Amino acid sequence: MIIIRPEQPRDEEVLFQMYRRAGGRLHEARLLDTLRENRRLFLSLAAWQENQAVGGVAFSPASLIPPMPELILVALAPLAVLPAQRRQGIGSTLVRLGLQRCRERQVDGVVVVGDPDWWGKFGFVAAAAYNWRGELSIPAPFWLVQELQPDALPKTPSTIVLAPELQEFLAARQEVLIPPADPGPVRREP
What we know:
It is a single chain. This protein is 29% helix and 29% strand. The protein has helices at residues 12-23, 27-37, 90-104, 116-120, 164-172, 174-177, and strands at residues 2-6, 43-49, 52-65, 73-81, 109-113, 125-126, 132-134, 143-147, 158-162. Strands 1, 2, 3, 4, 5, 6, 7, 8 and 9 form a nine-stranded mixed β-sheet that branches.
């Protein structure tokens, strides 16, 4: 049975190791640690199976330029599930529960950078639908947003600003996050 609960202080080292193993690198683990150390971790949930951490999701504060102080916006990252536990719905459950917890905390919207098809199944739409763009050089279709409170998100030209730790993480991982362009059919010379 999978149990999902908020991160506890005693979980830090276990979650670091889980994120490291899930991503095959230290990037995701370091991102979570750095967000936590800099007090920019809005919410962190962990999935447990038989007292072993098997997945996790985290949310950190985000904002818009021009500033809208009344708007509560967060970014979702990282999301990780151990390879042996993938394709069992753990990641999807973490995302759905994380969105629900954000909604309960009166968050107006959640931003994510990633595959529009995969994130679309959770209700994320292109940030461009709100006339928003990302501050990094990641192409517009990969900047996604979900409105959590009715009519809370403005549809005015704005730039999404992420926590500096998340900006650095995404800037270093663009080639992994964004699939390469399809080169089209291969032409063979006769």
